[in-house]
Amino acid sequence: MGKKFLLVLDDVWTDDFRIWEPIKVPLKSGAPGSRILVTTRNEGVSKMMDASYMLPLGKLSPEDSWSLFSKFAFYGKSREDRDNLEEIGREIADKCQGLPLAVKSLGSLMRFKETKQAWENVLHSELWELEEAERGIFPHLLLSYHDLSSPIKRCFAFCAIFPRDHKIERDTLIQLWMAQGFLVPTGSVEMEQIGAEYFDNLVMRSFFQDLERDKDDFSIVACRMHDIVQSFAQFLSKNQCFVIEFDDNKVLELNTKARHMTLMGKEEQFHPVIFNLKNLRTLQVLQKNVKTAPPDLFHGMQCLRGLDLNHTSITRLPSAIGRLFHLRWLNLSGLNFVVLPDTICKLYNLLALKLHGCRRLRRLPRGLGKLINLRYLNIEETESLSVLPQGIGRLSNLRTLSKFCIGENGEGCNVGELKNLNHLRGHLEISGLEKVRDVNEVMEANLKNKEHLRSLDLAFSFGGQELITNVLEALQPHPNLEALLVYDYGGSILPSWMSLLTKMKDLKLLRCVNCKELPPLGKLPSLEKLLIGHLNNVKCVGVEFLGKSIVLFPKLKELTFRYMVEWENWDTTTITSAATRRTMPCLRSLSLYDCPKLKAIPEGLKQRPLEELIITRCPILEQQ
């Protein structure tokens, strides 16, 4: 007999007994009192599960409806506005008939209505009298939808391409909008910024939910659509957007005018009907069992602008992909390609090429530099890719280049090709820096001009060479940089510019084995996390590490030392007691791993109100 458990299955839709049965069998061994709680909008699910008790959820009471409505509608409004609009607001809330999604959607809409007249216009809108509204379908969503600008309406309707409960990545959605030409830059405002504004607008109006946020800056990175909102998007897109789940026993007749389509199912081949969809603009394939792409797959898809094969198991891409001259967005992430067809270099309109997690990919096409419109080249987690092709420097529109692999002996690109890539933003890893033979190439890369970069990894490989110190010194980034990682650096001196990065929040120095002392990092005003590891020649950390400033490490919260095998002394005795009190005032976590010779922790740090202190494999400290 197992343990007693409570299992919650939220928002279950499948009523296929064959899926439920293998899940149910092991649950029968739970101890008496175990419970399974299921939420669903499909009564067939409860019957299939043979539920012992069903609790149909009622509608919200008028007061609960008003409470939820006012939370959204009066956000940011004054008490005077609330008093002035409450009577009309209650009438609008009553029209939602106690449906939570309707209340939330209308409340979000009214947030943007400033005058009493605008509220009355919504209350008396003809949309409440539409035939669809009389059947209880979407009246509240129609009101919110018709309040959108035409470009945002088009962007929202496109979301019908996503299956129910699908996780929608914000950046991917914006790039797909770009690929369809929905985002038109104006003046100095770029497409990405316009797309972000559209996305935020849809979030504020509750078209998106289940928001997933970045743990550092709290920005939205992903979302989902409520199933009713998803159905509403399909209602709006009519015969243009389809989500198709193929049934092996059924031949589908698809609308040949379909523009955007997602294919789902367990079939091992592309369904023959898609070869006739000559008007497709977007194709997303969610069929993991598909392993081969027939040579003629793309022959009839000349209008395709967005193609996502990420959720297939294809190992080779047909060379005919080069015929898709209008293609702007191509997602091949996670596939087991070794090489890509050179015909990809004919896709001159391509904006995004996503190869994240293509771990077997060994090289990129030599002519990649021809894709001068490319803005996103995602090659994260491509361990087998050790060099980028020459000509990468011609891609001056690049916003995302997750890693830059330096070649040698005439094979691949040199670091100087970074010169014109001044639009790069987010994260960049530069690897193979030990291959540099001319410091002038590094100077030409001009990292100081990459003002949009926020995170930078500088990767060397061990090996004695006299240039290495000058190479790192010449890699000075723009002061806007917020995160820096330096690893496998073989020089004995760390660069002078490191203490000038006033916005840097996160710094990691790893396996810099020849460095004998640490740079003066204490005067970095924004530094919050510091990790130092495998600096095997450092024997003493003293005042040189602190630097000179009124407050030393003023914002540092996490400090970690790892594998400092020769480190003996952590000496701050030469600074005054007042300065000691001003050293690391915000420190909350101190971690020391594998520092076998370290004799003591400074007294000033012992007095800090630490939330976490970890000392592991530091025998002398552990005895104290």
TrEMBL record:
Q: Which domain of life is it from?
A: Eukaryota
The lineage is: Eukaryota, Viridiplantae, Streptophyta, Embryophyta, Tracheophyta
For this UniProt record, give its keywords in alphabetical order, as a comma-separated list. Answer: Plant defense, Repeat
Q: Where is the NB-ARC domain?
A: 2-77
GO process annotations (BP) = defense response to other organism
- The identity of this protein, by name, is Disease resistance protein RGA2-like
Under the heading SUPFAM superfamilies, the entry gives: L domain-like (SSF52058), P-loop containing nucleoside triphosphate hydrolases (SSF52540)
Where in the numbering of this chain does the R13L1/DRL21-like LRR repeat region domain appear? 416-534
Q: Which InterPro entries match?
A: Apaf_helical, Disease_R_plants, Leu-rich_rpt, LRR_dom_sf, LRR_R13L1-DRL21, NB-ARC, P-loop_NTPase, WH-like_DNA-bd_sf
UniProt xrefs under PANTHER family: DISEASE RESISTANCE PROTEIN RP, LEUCINE-RICH REPEAT AND WD REPEAT-CONTAINING PROTEIN 1
Q: Name one Pfam family in it.
A: WHD_DRP
Disease resistance protein winged helix domain segment(s): 161-232
Q: GO: which molecular function terms?
A: ADP binding
